[in-house]
Description:
The protein has about 230 residues and is α+β, with helices and mostly antiparallel strands. About 45% of the residues lie in helices and about 15% in strands.
Amino acid sequence: MTEKASPSPLAHSGHRARVRQRLERDATALADYEVLELLLGYGLTRKDTKPLAKALLQRFGNIRAVMDAREEDLQEVQGIGKGLLAFWKVLQEAHRRYMASQVQKRTVLADPASVAQMAQARLAGCPHEECWLVLVDQGNRLMAWERLRHGGVTSVFLEPRDVFERALLRKASGIILVHNHPGGNPEPSPADQKLTGELQALAPRMGLRFLDHIIVTDEDCYSMTRSQRI
């Protein structure tokens, strides 16, 4: 019995070139797996990436979920090695910084949704809680977007002084606190509500405006201001 030969690297490159030509003619005509296939080709230059692209979509469901996937989940897909993980990490970081720069272009931050979008780009797929701080000037123009603290899977410890010290150092006028819930439920915990109340009460004494506390998940967000908790 004759063993079937594996496709040569030239066959892969020819197929990839044809997909690229279709991309140049009309990018919207490509299927999701073909977009992923081309993207993966930059990390796996000598391999047929179509099977891996399809496997990723089957595992995660759509391109957004693939792009936001956690490292440990990606490693469960056969064909994902250290080199490709490093490539993926760069892609994710570039996307997060792009989303942050989009918000920073805005003159005034007046909508919790824009802050939530920036936070979701940064924290999507994050397996632990993190607290981030948005600082604005008197006209609500963005001054800084900074990480305050890493936490655990279900909580992150934060004192009001951690928030105020950073705001005073930056000479900010207003504060928006942001953190994520990896479990997927954006509803505030009792600890979240307690911290929000403390910040709201103490901020005026520091000459600061506490504008919002936003909780994000990969797909949803909760604004304390919109929910009239502030």
